[in-house]
Design goal:
This protein is an alpha/beta fold. It has 15 helices and 12 strands. The strands form 3 sheets. Strands 3-2-1-4-5-6-10 form a 7-stranded parallel sheet, sandwiched between helices. It has a 3-stranded mixed sheet with strand order 7-9-11. Helix 6 packs parallel to helix 7.
Length: 371
């Protein structure tokens, strides 16, 4: 880390001049985070190609916000190496952001083969396509805060903490981080990017929340589905602590990281945390109470007393490195973020144009003070 001391600067937005007409290849563009990022990159003027399976939920933000109308959308599986390699070759990307994954802890217990094959071999396939095609590009591999070997600490994990995870999902994300390191050390060393042309980093984010998330067995979508139908929501672990952040917060981090990688891989090709402010690490019950209060209409929740597989109780990230060296820090506190979420689902309930609603929130986020 000594070689990047002194690179600090004020928080900022993605550089429009960098992204305008930039060829970007985004895996997982049909998912929740991928749909938000696709819309934002489109607003920034990127020449965007998305590669993913069909939308993983019904309904889906991808369809509700008509994401496919403004990007080149390829429906394919990152586990299909030949198809993925062909798509990368056709797109000729200058930036690759790898989001495609099996993203649910409980599904990892139900189908560990899918979880490991998607999250580990899918990542290998992306890197191997870049290596075999001899692409000169920036690659940001998005993993998870759950990549870390969780010791249930009350303080946040830093980037040099060991990878791990005791459940299949978390463990697969830790494995994806190890794969990233292996490819960077073996094929894409940061000190010789002039020779191989690839600047590779990983990004670990906390729980990204926002409108348009319909993922099963996830807190916000479960609460919203219950509130929309007038039923109480059953919650598995209301005392669990999580680092909550509005979805655009980590996405901004990924974009700024890609810009920095293109400038100087030797300084920025490493792992990065993007987590909320300390005050925004809250228990699940706090989120549920806040959402129920804002929603009104008798919205409520109760604890699910059934038996459930293990999930981490406490988990936080330390994002000091991103703040110091990328000039990134959270700009939308959790309270207003939850208000934006309620606004989005109320718009869905009323039949509003959800593409306009989502784009409007992106533009409102861009207008927030960045200092």
């Amino acid at each position: 880390m000594n070689d990047i001391v002194g690179m600090s600067g004020p928080a900022g937005l993605p550089n429009r001049s960098f992204w305008n007409n930039r060829r970007v290849f985004l895996t997982g563009h049909t998912g929740f985070k991928g749909s938000w990022l696709s819309l934002w990159l489109s607003l920034l003027g990127a020449d965007l190609t998305g590669c993913a399976l069909d939308p993983p939920t019904q309904p889906s933000l991808f369809q509700q916000a008509k994401v496919a109308t403004t990007i080149r959308s390829i429906i394919a599986d990152v586990r299909d190496f030949n198809r993925l390699k062909s798509a990368v070759a056709e797109a000729r990307p200058e930036v690759i952001i790898h989001l495609a994954a099996q993203s649910v802890v409980r599904r990892g217990y139900e189908d560990p083969i899918e979880t490991y094959s998607s999250n580990v071999m899918g990542t290998v396939n992306v890197f191997e396509a870049v290596r075999q095609l001899k692409c000169s590009c920036v690659v940001v591999n998005v993993t998870s805060d759950k990549s870390y070997a969780n010791r249930e600490w009350v303080w946040g994990y830093r980037e040099d903490e060991p990878m791990g995870g005791r459940d299949p999902y978390s463990n697969s994300k830790g494995c994806a981080e190890l794969v990233t390191t292996a490819y960077r050390e073996s094929f894409f060393p940061a000190k010789s990017v002039d020779q191989h042309g690839v600047a590779l980093a990983s990004a670990r984010a906390g729980n990204a929340i926002g409108g348009g998330d319909w993922t099963g067995d996830q807190l916000i979508p479960d609460l919203m589905r219950a509130f929309l139908t007038g039923k109480p929501c059953l919650i598995r672990n209301p005392s669990a602590f999580r680092p909550w952040q509005f979805v655009l917060e980590p996405l901004r981090g990924y974009l700024i990281l890609a810009e920095k990688l293109s400038e100087d891989a030797s300084r920025f090709a490493s792992g990065w945390n993007f987590g909320p402010a300390e005050a925004d690490a809250k228990p699940v019950s706090w989120i549920a109470d806040k959402l129920a209060q804002l929603w009104g209409d008798g919205a409520s929740w109760a604890q699910d007393s059934g038996a459930h597989p293990h999930e981490a109780h406490a988990l936080k990230l330390d994002a000091s490195k991103a703040k110091a060296y990328l000039g990134w820090h959270p700009v939308l506190p959790l309270g207003p973020a939850i208000e934006w979420i309620v606004e989005w689902y109320r718009a869905f309930q009323s039949g509003a144009d959800l593409r306009c609603v989502t784009r409007s929130q992106i533009e409102r986020y861009e207008a927030l003070p960045q200092n």
